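User: Modeling request: complex.
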Amino acid sequence: MLARERAQPGLRALLGIWFQSERLLPVLLILPSVVAIGIFVYGFIGWTLLVSLSRWTGVAPDYTLVGLENYLRLFNTPRFQNDLRNTLVFTLFFVGGSLLVGLLLAILLDQKVRGESFFRTVYLFPMAVSFVVTGVVWRWLLTPGDPRTGDLGLNQLFGLLGLHFLKSRWFTDPTVLLAVPVGAIQFGIPVALFSVILAAIWQMSGFCMAMYLAALRAIPDDLREAARVDGASEFQLYRDVIIPLLKPTTISAAIVLGHISLKIFDLVFIMTGSGPAQATDMPAIFMYETTFRDNRFAQGAAIAIVMLILVSLVIVPYLISTLRGKLEW
Amino acid sequence: MVGTIRLSRVALYLILSAFALFYLLPVYLLLVTSLKSFADVSFARMWSPPSYFSLESFATAFERLRPNILNSVTMTVPATIISAFIGSINGYVLAKWRFRGSEVLFVLILFGMFIPYQSILIPLVYVLQRIGEVGQDLVQILPPDLAWLGNFIPGYGSIAGLVLVHVIYGIPITTLIFRNYYAAVPGELLEAARIDGAGILGIYRYIILPISMPGFVVVTIWQFTSIWNEFLFAVTITSSPVKRPLMVAVYNLQGSQITEWNIQMAGALLAALPTLLVYLALGRYFLRGLLAGSVKG
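Assistant: Request completed. Predicted assembly structure:
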């Protein structure tokens, strides 16, 4: 072999080997996508990082480097401190709530329910709807109303049903529960945020239901039978056998929802905006207004990079761990 | 025993129905509001059905949103088709023609679908603005009867610009879905074709493409839904109201007078209708795209 290869040097032979072994063509076929992702994802991230270290403010770019100044200012800004608090609270309740509702619905639907496909279709349809539409509709549903208009939305419905105790000020409530002063802000749980959490759970819990249902259907019946033969009640069966088996699904769903929640923009922007006392403000809204309304590009870029880091902390370990088993590196 | 079982079945259906009501509540409000005429709309009776059916709200909403509906169609259709084909080629190569480093490349591509787009938005808008300017200069030197070519220059504020953006940022998910789809195609099928003398493109054309229909349906539904529903790019890459996609226009309806909320509801329903119909007709494929998005396998 070696002798023959040495005997046939030269560019033509080299190209011949490449084409015959079909090694070049696969690379060429995927090259446009690789270049596009290389520029539009990685190149632009690097560019944004550069902007975040500059003093670009105003329409004309200014790449004078100022080190971490924009980041230091950002973390000292009360609005951004509120954003971090809101992101944390929103993520915990939205992910937790969607997982719980999804798991409950999946287990209920797994009881050989008549009309299962109807229920599944109803629970999942919000996934096909835009966050924009969800935001517009839920804003109306949760508009509390004022003395001029009377009760509106859900408050009016609760009134009609005699459930007056359920009436709430929804996203107009500036209260922060369990408030502790941290930095320049009140750390705690902003009540107004629950309106957005409710709408987000409405939209995404069907996704968790679908994932859990697929996982439940993959559990062999023998396992359930064996547990029943051993005298386990249905409750014990789920607590001790089934739900532990669903752990990988829970992790996948939590990561997908978690990264959506860390970068949530449209739903909150449309439904409540920043809210009372920035109770529903989010990093993405702050970034949008800083960059595209105030033209403070360097500051906006810094917010974007912080968002990217937050999302990467969730996504990168997940990508590596789910794919490592399947890929040969 | 029989009694408790029957009771628990009743409870089961009660809970399932209660949740169904929760999911359908916004739909009810959308429907009863948008089917009321202007005269019939009142705050005090927002939950009651219309006293007579009227398409007045829909007609008004449609009239206002018409240019934006057209924008969304001309943006979504080409972007969906182009990104489906790109994903198909990439998936084929990454599943069946692996080369040194192709797996790492796949993961690097995949990362692109999780990033917050805020982290690329500033350079993106800047670059699209420059492309737009160069495009304008080009149009100036073109003969007038070729000026229509300007519509295809993907600059800032243009539909072509949005198409370009959706195609590029759609590469990770379409590649992922097709890669997993083709991974299930048996290698013997490809070997047989190779022995018959087919090359990499021949195999794609005569073996892979004919069995790709289900993959294309999943990807097309996924891309159609996400591009149609998308808001961040739509609101940052366009500025003139008539050039904006439907979702931005629906958002802007909200800013209009509070008394016109029947129009807002009718507009929201119009905007949701295309993706809802696709979901109702092809729910099974929609679900497959959804589950693929969580990187299983």
